[in-house]
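wait is this the right file?? whatever heres the structure
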């Protein structure tokens, strides 16, 4: 029995998706896209000038998911697309609190403070919409307007995090053997797109590159 369990574990480990180190990501991404917030480097793509517009992505996504929206918004605004904790190229913190609704909201506010932005328009999609609602309710003085795109409820971030935390010892193994595989990412994207032809190998790889980052076990 013990031998069988060890064999199964070995096979799972052999099938694990390789994770990119944060140092590798920092060298590859434009230096100007990182904002130091305390001891953490937050990835925030910034384009354009004018009144600030903050973009918060959905679960499993990143600033990359706004790539076709940013150019139009940047024609008259300063666009800031933030990678939330656990996603994209933002450095993964170790504390569990960072991944709660409150932790994500703090990340957004601290990033805005670091960028010298006192008030901004804010746009949130899905999971990011729940964070947006929470921010607007708790800190209305920081936001000029709010736009929700297929938003979750403000409690969603904590509900999902609580379920994941209950299985924390298995989280990293599941992520690296199942969830982060290109096939699994492709299936998730196909459920999100009306036009399947948009889910290209390049798109799948772009999402995978921004998810398979060291620290995924904590996230």
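ok assuming it is, sequence goes like this
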């Amino acid at each position: 029995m013990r031998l069988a369990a060890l064999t199964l574990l070995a096979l799972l480990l052999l099938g694990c998706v390789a994770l990119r180190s944060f140092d590798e990501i920092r060298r590859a991404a434009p230096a100007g896209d990182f904002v130091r917030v305390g001891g953490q480097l937050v990835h925030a793509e910034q384009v354009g000038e004018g009144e600030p517009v903050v973009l918060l992505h959905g679960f499993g996504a990143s600033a990359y998911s706004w790539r076709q929206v940013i150019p139009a918004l940047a024609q008259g605004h300063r666009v800031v697309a933030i990678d939330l904790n656990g996603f994209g190229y933002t450095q993964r913190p170790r504390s569990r609190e960072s991944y709660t609704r409150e932790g994500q909201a703090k990340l957004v506010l601290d990033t805005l403070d670091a960028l010298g932005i006192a008030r901004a328009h804010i746009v949130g999609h899905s999971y990011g919409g729940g964070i947006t609602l929470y921010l607007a309710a708790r800190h209305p003085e920081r936001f000029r307007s709010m736009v929700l795109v297929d938003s979750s409820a403000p409690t969603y971030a904590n509900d999902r995090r609580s379920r994941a935390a209950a299985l924390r010892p298995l989280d990293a193994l599941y992520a690296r053997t199942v969830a982060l595989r290109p096939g699994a990412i492709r299936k998730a994207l196909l459920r999100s797109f009306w036009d399947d032809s948009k889910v290209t190998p390049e798109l799948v790889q772009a999402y995978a590159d921004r998810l398979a980052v060291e620290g995924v076990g904590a996230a």
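The mean pLDDT is 84. so i think its the right one actually
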